[in-house]
Amino acid sequence: MFAPAAFAVDAPAGDAGVSAAASSGLAKLGGALGAGLAVVGGALGIGRIGGSAVESMARQPEASGTINTAMIITAAMIEGATLFAVVVGLLATL
After folding, report:
1. Is the pTM of this model over 0.85?
2. Using CA atoms, how far apart are residues 79 and 67, in angstroms rounded to an integer?
3. Confidence band of 27 (pLDDT split at 50, 70, 90)
4. What does the DSSP 8-state code read for residue 61?
5. Contact 25, 79 (CB under 8 A)
6. How many Cβ atoms sit within 10 Å of the Cβ of residue 23?
7. Which residues fall within 8 angstroms of residue 9, CB to CB, at 6 or more apart?
8. Are the beta carbons of 32 and 93 closer than 8 angstroms?
9. Which segments of the chain does DSSP mark as H helices, in order?
């Protein structure tokens, strides 16, 4: 009901300014959404790795050292890829 008034902005003199401003705003929105989705995907991946590792350690306690090492290395790789995706997404907003 009040959405058109909430998103009202002063229009520049030419139509080119409006499309450039809208394009810039959509690029920033896309970059921010991409960064957010990367964080959510990374968090879900690390959560699944942790859950599976704990389940494996409960089933086979003698292999817990090897499982723990593999889990930490894999989680670090996922976190590195997530950090890279966040940086790329946030650079898209500039």
Report:
1. no
2. 18
3. confident
4. G
5. no
6. 10
7. 21
8. yes
9. 3-6, 15-59, 64-91
The amino acid present at 56, given as its one-letter code, is: S
Say which residues have a Cβ less than 8 Å from residue 28's Cβ, sequence separation at least 6.
92, 93
Domain boundaries, the chain: 30-94
Q: Convert the pLDDT of each residue in 66-85 to its tens digit.
A: 999 999 999 999 999 999 99
Torsion over CA: 76, 78, 81, 87 (sign): negative
Give domain 30-94's CATH superfamily. Answer: F1F0 ATP synthase subunit C (1.20.20.10)
Distance CA 6, CA 8 (A): 6
Average pLDDT on 35-62 reads 95
What is the per-residue burial (b if ≥16 Cβ within 10 Å, else e) of 53-75?
beebbeeeeeeeeebeeebeebb
